[in-house]
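Hey,
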Amino acid sequence: MMNKRIRPGIEVLLDGRLDILRGQRVGLVCNQATVMPDLRHAADVFFEHPDINLTTLFGPQHGIRGDVQYNMIESPHVRDARTGLMVYSLYSETREPTEEMVADIDTFVVDLQDVGCRIYTFVYTMANCMRAAKKFGKRVVVCDRPNPINGVAVEGNVTETEFTSFVGQFELPTRHGMTAGELAKMFNEHWGIGCELEVVQMEGWSREMWGDETGLPWVLPSPNIPDVDTCVAFPATVHLEGTELSEGRGTTLPFLLNGAPFIDAYEWAAALRKFDLPGVAFREAYFQPTFCEFAGETCGGVQLHITDRNAFTPVIVGIGMVKTAYDLYPEHFQWRQNAYEYEFGKNPFDVVCGTDKIRKWIESGASLDEIRAEWTDGLFRFKDVRQQFLLYS
């Protein structure tokens, strides 16, 4: 654990880099987690600052205040009650800012807390703002924040081009080990967005840090990510969103409690223990979600207890959970029936995974070792490209 907190990009910007906003009309891309270290919201700080001309607010999935609980529910455009400014939802009828939305800005300032997993929409909202900036002659300033599951570990298959979506616009692995600022540079240079971009780096962050080792307060970036432990588990159990299993929404332990009414908790836990996966223990659990899948029904399942974060390999854990549920309960198990992220015509699990290969391997009875071996070459190529865009030691 560190003794001194890091300084996030938004603090660095306000303390010594305001020259990059001077004379600019600013559009802030933010949500409830866009706070200063003292918990003041950046929108309030910008609005009250004599040297910042804040004209517009933009919100990602779940709304600017994080009040939209359900997954994949679009948010409306509203006027902010606190500042009176227009808040444009970038999880609405459009995911990319329109010409009308950017009419009163010169520069986007993007400050969104990511969770370190490809299957999360905020960095793609950032990318869409970068595309709009390129199209309409605007600038983008990204205020960097920590990757809460560290910036070292990289794991999982790399998204295939034909399976890109709003939970995977680029050829990234499931766990990318990068910050939002580093990803912005990669999107801009390697994948050719080509906007005018500046990243305001953090001070004091190093790659091995976990989110609760930074000295910064944690504000949940979306309704079902209440703490860093949930971030750690997320790259595992987000895979269940591509199935008709519960990933724990509607419980007090989202992404840590998982199951379904047809699952025998003891049988599933025993099957998962046989993999002898490092850094995690599976406890038999029963729960009743209050909303989402199986609301009001008793589910059998498991709770993930992460015993060693540095040894834990979440992506293969999540695939192992889906594989064992598929193998044990063939008469009940189903891939998700509704479209995932409005990707109609694609199997939702394939959208989550960014490939159809993992589903086909599970259906064919491939082992976890065989599945993991198949993504080795893609990870090697990604790591080689990634190295060019790392900003921190």
